[in-house]
ABC transporter ATP-binding protein (Psychrobacillus lasiicapitis), 239 residues
Amino acid sequence: MKIIEVNNLTKSYGTNHVLQGVNFHAQSGEIIGVIGKNGAGKSTFLEILMTIKQYDAGTVIVLDENIASLPMNRLEQIRKQISVVLQPTQFYKTLKVEELLKLFKAYYNSNLDIKKIIKEFKLEPHRKKYFDKLSGGWKQIVSLAIVFLSEPKLLILDEPTTGLDPHMRNMLWTYITDYNERTGGTVILTTHNMDEIELYCDKVMLINNGMNEVFDTTESILATGYKSIHEFYLKKVSI
Ligand SMILES: Nc1ncnc2c1ncn2[C@@H]1O[C@H](COP(=O)(O)OP(=O)(O)O)[C@@H](O)[C@H]1O
Ligand SMILES: [Mg+2]
């Protein structure tokens, strides 16, 4: 199955030509990091893959379907197999953490055990708290725990670790890699933390000046003589 195949993708906001010919593909089971400076077009790119943003030209295939030519009902079927992290602010303020998890478990028709999720995401001390009263980092962890209830084929995460402390970040990555190994699900995410790319991603795409300036395995990038992905980024991208 073609999880994602993107050819010559372009997208402008008025005269701001954000994506000017991006080529990208993702196979089943890959973990791919998308990097680039603020405003490079990472979120725009991910939103196009999520099928929630219009693009101007090029081909975008998601889960074997060309999304440009799909009727609404087929598009909805595709969307059901993709999970994305929702903005925490959209959650019901009146629900407690455990209630939220139960609600989404029912919504996704998930077989996963809520108790196990609570344990794995270290949510025990927070399970009876209102979502609204959690700190920013814990809100994010709960949002991510919810995403994993759906066991998606394709998981798209926009800066999932921004604002998380090192333990939270480690916990999240443990869960991402475990989900990936257990289900063979594909993960595409953005991050500004180059260590995460080096440690956990199979491939990396650098968006620079509207193009996928680099799209390669982290291994082959490091094999070309960079000490780290961090060094690679600093050398490739000007301020
Ligand atoms: N809805 C929008 N309308 C107009 N301009 C936008 C919109 N969304 C993003 N942009 C602009 O597009 C560029 C890329 O934004 P974005 O995809 O959010 O980049 P990144 O996620 O890499 O920081 C930025 O210049 C941003 O201001
Ligand atoms: Mg962004």
